[in-house]
């Protein structure tokens, strides 16, 4: 171990022992040199290493501080399962989203990644190519279950990960949201109990509200994901019909479940004969070496409906998603025929054209690298400007940060005040049926980092202090 690595490890050990608390200022470079009789370069190298690992943060003209995300804030433990006979959240979600739908607003609350990351020139070329060759028959060719070549391309991506999904089981939809909604509708009747995570993607709660389903919200944390013991309790206590959750890069918390936990989850739901509606829209946005498998990979009894889309990783505006629906594929097509009829055919054809160019994987590699860098920059900026008591949960995928204000602070109020300064955030209240996450918010870190972003984070810091 080199000298600077030894020093970095020493500091990590001291933080773990509680010698240094989150928010504490570390000895300056000069003080550290004097106390350990080590060179300035060694200390500087050690501090930079710790900073890049997110253990400490630099504050300009002030020094190095222990990162707030390591804070162990004691909180009232969340109830394991919360039941709601009715879900009533859509009006609130609509109002929050409407209020931030303004191009002059800094979109930290947005769910979409920065569209400038997408390969728009190539996609436009593909659209132009297909518009030259599309015939009157293309509409008919692309009716449910959707374009055959596109379903084959998606099936081949499952095959790359060792999953056997037939193109005949895939239904092309208007984004993942339609896939998820149709899946839920296909396996439930109004009044049925459905399990969701707490907190969860608000689209799940809106779907429950629309279909008049009852919610069982199961405790879920950024560190461990869904609590399987609580899930089992809910399955024992209620006649549950379906479970809607995310196993990769969960929105809003960011975690990815371990392969062991995914296997346990599928086994548990299978034992209780409960369908899993798996929302996997962020699966391409991992930072590690390998794309994580979905829970679908452990499904031997065809209990999983796997939903995803191109909206978060290639193009949001095309509105193309899909569900690998297994034995439910026919029912889902019937429901689609009654609602949207079919997905736009030029968009399906353009995606077929783009995917055939084989550029997709190279582009995805660049996208993942860029997102990881942007998230790191956003995180460093937040650490610089938010008060040290604020805890920032950061995951190794996607582009969201989950931010925890000190207990009692109201993130909805922060959101209202931030909007007056043309900054949006996504308050925790959007992701739950109760008050548990009132002091949290989700932060979109996909934007290229510049002065405007830095200033906006600084303003957020001031607003939090004023709370
Ligand atoms: C977790 C999650 N699932 C599904 C969707 C909807 O995806 P799409 O835009 O493909 O309909 C979103 C969009 O924000 C999301 O965040």
UniProtKB/TrEMBL annotation:
<dbReference type="InterPro" id="IPR036388">
    <property type="entry name" value="WH-like_DNA-bd_sf"/>
</dbReference>
<feature type="domain" description="HTH gntR-type">
    <location>
        <begin position="1"/>
        <end position="69"/>
    </location>
</feature>
<keyword id="KW-0663">Pyridoxal phosphate</keyword>
<keyword id="KW-0805">Transcription regulation</keyword>
<dbReference type="InterPro" id="IPR015422">
    <property type="entry name" value="PyrdxlP-dep_Trfase_small"/>
</dbReference>
<dbReference type="GO" id="GO:0003700">
    <property type="term" value="F:DNA-binding transcription factor activity"/>
</dbReference>
<dbReference type="InterPro" id="IPR051446">
    <property type="entry name" value="HTH_trans_reg/aminotransferase"/>
</dbReference>
<dbReference type="InterPro" id="IPR015424">
    <property type="entry name" value="PyrdxlP-dep_Trfase"/>
</dbReference>
<keyword id="KW-0808">Transferase</keyword>
<dbReference type="InterPro" id="IPR015421">
    <property type="entry name" value="PyrdxlP-dep_Trfase_major"/>
</dbReference>
<comment type="similarity">
    <text>In the C-terminal section; belongs to the class-I pyridoxal-phosphate-dependent aminotransferase family.</text>
</comment>
<dbReference type="InterPro" id="IPR004839">
    <property type="entry name" value="Aminotransferase_I/II_large"/>
</dbReference>
<dbReference type="GO" id="GO:0008483">
    <property type="term" value="F:transaminase activity"/>
</dbReference>
<dbReference type="Pfam" id="PF00155">
    <property type="entry name" value="Aminotran_1_2"/>
</dbReference>
<dbReference type="GO" id="GO:0030170">
    <property type="term" value="F:pyridoxal phosphate binding"/>
</dbReference>
<dbReference type="InterPro" id="IPR036390">
    <property type="entry name" value="WH_DNA-bd_sf"/>
</dbReference>
<dbReference type="Pfam" id="PF00392">
    <property type="entry name" value="GntR"/>
</dbReference>
<keyword id="KW-0032">Aminotransferase</keyword>
<keyword id="KW-0238">DNA-binding</keyword>
<protein>
    <submittedName>
        <fullName>Putative GntR family transcriptional regulator YdcR</fullName>
    </submittedName>
</protein>
<keyword id="KW-0804">Transcription</keyword>
<dbReference type="GO" id="GO:0003677">
    <property type="term" value="F:DNA binding"/>
</dbReference>
<dbReference type="InterPro" id="IPR000524">
    <property type="entry name" value="Tscrpt_reg_HTH_GntR"/>
</dbReference>
């Amino acid at each position: 171990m080199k000298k600077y690595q030894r020093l970095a490890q020493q500091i990590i050990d001291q933080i773990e022992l509680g010698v240094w608390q989150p928010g504490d200022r570390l000895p300056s470079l000069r003080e550290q040199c004097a106390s350990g009789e080590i060179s300035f370069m060694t200390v500087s190298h050690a501090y930079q290493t710790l900073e890049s690992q997110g253990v400490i943060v630099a504050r300009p003209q002030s020094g190095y501080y222990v990162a707030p995300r390591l804070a162990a804030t004691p909180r009232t433990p969340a109830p394991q399962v919360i039941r709601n006979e009715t879900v009533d959240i859509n009006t609130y979600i609509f109002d929050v989203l409407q209020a931030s739908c303004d191009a002059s607003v800094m979109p930290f609350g947005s769910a979409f990644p920065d569209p400038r990351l997408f390969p728009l020139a190539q996609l436009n070329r593909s659209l132009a190519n297909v518009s030259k060759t599309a015939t009157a028959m293309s509409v008919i060719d692309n009716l449910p279950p959707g374009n055959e070549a596109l379903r084959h391309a998606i099936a081949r991506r499952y095959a790359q990960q060792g999953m056997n999904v037939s193109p005949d089981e895939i239904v092309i939809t208007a984004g993942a949201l339609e896939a998820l909604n149709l899946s839920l509708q296909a396996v439930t009747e109004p009044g049925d109990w459905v399990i969701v995570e707490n907190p969860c993607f608000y689209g799940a709660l809106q779907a429950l509200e629309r279909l008049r389903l009852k919610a069982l919200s199961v405790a879920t944390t950024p560190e461990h994901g869904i609590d399987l013991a609580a899930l089992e309790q809910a399955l024992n206590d209620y006649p549950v019909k379906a479970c809607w959750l995310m196993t990769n890069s969960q929105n809003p918390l960011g975690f990815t479940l371990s392969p062991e936990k995914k296997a346990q989850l599928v086994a548990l739901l299978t034992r209780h004969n409960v369908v899993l509606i798996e929302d996997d829209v962020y699966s391409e946005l991992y930072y590690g070496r390998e794309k994580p498998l979905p829970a679908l990979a452990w499904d031997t009894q065809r209990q999983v409906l796997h939903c995803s889309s191109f909206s978060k990783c290639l193009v949001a505006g095309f509105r193309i998603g899909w569900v690998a629906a297994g034995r439910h594929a026919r029912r889902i097509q019937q429901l689609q025929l009654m609602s949207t009829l079919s997905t736009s055919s030029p968009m399906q054809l353009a995606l077929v054209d783009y995917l055939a160019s084989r550029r997709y994987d190279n582009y995805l590699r660049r996208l993942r690298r860029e997102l990881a860098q942007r998230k790191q920059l956003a995180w460093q900026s937040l650490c610089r400007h938010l008060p040290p008591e604020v805890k920032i949960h950061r995951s190794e995928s996607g582009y969201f940060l989950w931010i925890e204000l000190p207990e009692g602070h109201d993130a909805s109020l922060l959101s209202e005040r931030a909007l007056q300064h043309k900054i949006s955030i996504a308050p925790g209240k959007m992701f739950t049926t109760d008050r548990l996450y009132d002091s949290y918010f989700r932060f979109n870190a996909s934007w290229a980092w510049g002065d405007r972003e830095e200033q906006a984070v600084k303003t957020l810091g001031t607003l939090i202090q004023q709370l």
